[in-house]
Amino acid sequence: MVHRWETSGSVWLEDEHTAQFELASSEGLGRVEREAQSRGRLPDIAHLLGASLPLSCDCSPIYPEGFAFCPTCGAPLDKLAGRGTPPPDWWGPWSDRLLPRHVPHGLSVTALALGDSLEERPAAPAPGRPDRTMPAPPNAHCVFAAGAFGFSAQRLIALAHARNVLQYWDPLGAAWHVMAAEDNTSDLTFSAPASSYAWLPAPDPLRGEVGLVPTDRGLRRLFIDPVSETWRTESVFDGHLASAPGTMRRHVACLVNGEAGVRLWSAHSDMSNEVVYECEAPAGHWERPVGYDGKLFWLHAQGQMVWQPGAPPQWIAWPAGWSPRLQFGGPTQSRDGRLWQIGHDGQAYSFLELGKADGQLEALSGARLGFASLLFRRGHAVVGEPWGQEHVEDPHDDDAMVLPLLRGFNNNRSQPSGLVLRFHQYTGMAEDALAGRIIARTTVEWIGKRNVILDDIARLARPLECVPFVYDNCLWLHHPDWNQVRGWHLDALS
Questions:
Q1: Which of 53, 103, 258, 454 is the most buried (most CB within 10 A)?
Q2: CATH level 2 (architecture), domain 93-493
Q3: Highest-confidence range of 322-336, 382-396, 410-424, by mean pLDDT?
């Protein structure tokens, strides 16, 4: 005989003979198979659902939500329901909605106070090492998201969008699980480069709801079931997407490849009032959008698309002979608040003002890497105007090159803060360093009030494939060539 127990979110079955509990169903999850509840997965399932685990008894390996004592022997249980609050979510810095409006959204800028913890470490030149490691995902070319997704505990997922593979990290089992699609027709493939990818988190997620994700077939709402290790999607918009979606003033928009070029699709955040604009712009993949000053900007090798909700989009081609250097980081800000994109006219580098058909040009003395107000020329920070002279603190840094990965937001422009890679003894072209050239020695550094060396890397190639993310109160850094993901504690965020 089987006894049925119902909690606020789940249904459990208790075997009369063995006194063991088994999950029958839970809110937001699909059909729960018995095979999914293997002994190795039960601790993770209990934390996800807020169930209870045994501390000393062997009556059952798991108990329903809210159980404080074993109903068979009376032994106390590890009651997980309502324990603590999950750490901050992470959706990539380009989805950080906590940034103020005067900071461009869509760039690698985060409002998390990472420097409050990292800058407490010994300052340079003292070398640092990772505090934690985790195995790299089986499909290593991926983007990461960390969130509760409507469950009781934060979890990490890694989407290899070029291969249609969604991966789930079980922290208690210390293993990656490849999740299966519930429907064989579902597809998360988005064949654009990683620099073009961005997903939008659900503001108030249902159980298992991840958010809006771009695919080659259109915009989809993604749901995961970590218990059965499956995922499913709901269609939001069908079309051959040319870009990731962006948000601006309760509007969602993305670019779509059409037969005659590109169209811009937009809707309110509740997906009502859909509007499609025809644009005279080239097809193909575009960079992820940047939101600033009430507008969305999409950048392309041939020009820029500018859109303000309620008005038709504007396509602006780059000046004749001028080509952008999109791999250098992204748009940067001048002190008067305008956005600028670095490029080259065949003779020299220059910054071009964005958003205007006759944008101003500012000549440069050399390449600058970075975005927002985190900008470097060679190994020196540029703390004034983007086209101004670099601030030289150590002349030895002339033989280095700094590539910013992540800016930590602060209001002090003269004191930039963020995660960077420093290429030592490198005097070649910036384009070569960011392509396939192998860098003999690279240090991972946090710069701010104190410069801290977090790690030392030998023979780094393709540095643009480094992916920083925040999960479980740690700052992590992943590269597809590494067997392990490196992490540093962020105690201040706990």
A1: 454
A2: 7 Propeller (2.130)
A3: 322-336
